[in-house]
Amino acid sequence: MVRFIKDILSRINSPQRGYVYVERDDPGVMTAAKPGARAQIPGRSPPWIVVNHDLAVVTVARWPGSLWYVEVVDPITPEEQKDSPLRADAGYTRAAAVKVLKQVAVGELFGAHGSKVCTVINAAGELTLETAGRLAESRHAHASEAASRLWRAWIARHQVLFAGYRGDFDGVISVGRPRSPIGVALGVVSAQVGRRAEAVAGKSVWIDVPDDPEEVYLAKPWSGAQHPLFDAALAVGAPEFVSAADRSILLEGWRSVFGDDPA
Asked: What predicted TM-score, i.e. pTM, was given to this entire model?
């Protein structure tokens, strides 16, 4: 009995570790993170350090950034966050201080082939009006079906949401947790295209959705450029779920503009 109690206490008191994503231009306390360092916020008020328990729940608000594996040394207590309490399934801990254990390759957010996915994300953030137009025009006619087959193969393997859905997954960014065959990457690609479009062409690239003033969508050719980028990211990021024929289909748009496959 005593051993059982000690085991329970050990689990309660054990260091909690997880991942912190830090945007490159973030002015917060994690900006100067390095292995062995302690990062601590001033006081106990937000913004707190968000320590994600698993890579699958890390949020990438802006790209690029760095990824750190840390140990929580001063967690924010339930009482201190009573005005914004965490759900039991939140998947992260709020901390006032962490010890930085090591830097993790940011591509790990997107799976075993995440470095190749990062190449696609970076390209999305450097589009020109000309390359966006070429991408939009060069997507393979059957890429939508190929993308949907990849999604369904992944869903069947992981038994995630929509396992019984047989429709079109073309353009889908997330279906819950895990969010996609390449994690949060599709959402990051989409955000990069949107920011780049606005930087190049101004706010006029956003078109209001009729009858819903809070919803907008991207104007052409930017909206069309997203899909070949999604295709390429899926093809290189989740090769175990795509046939050789479908891989060629999904990479056709990328290859027509950038030549070599993402690497």
From this structure: 0.89
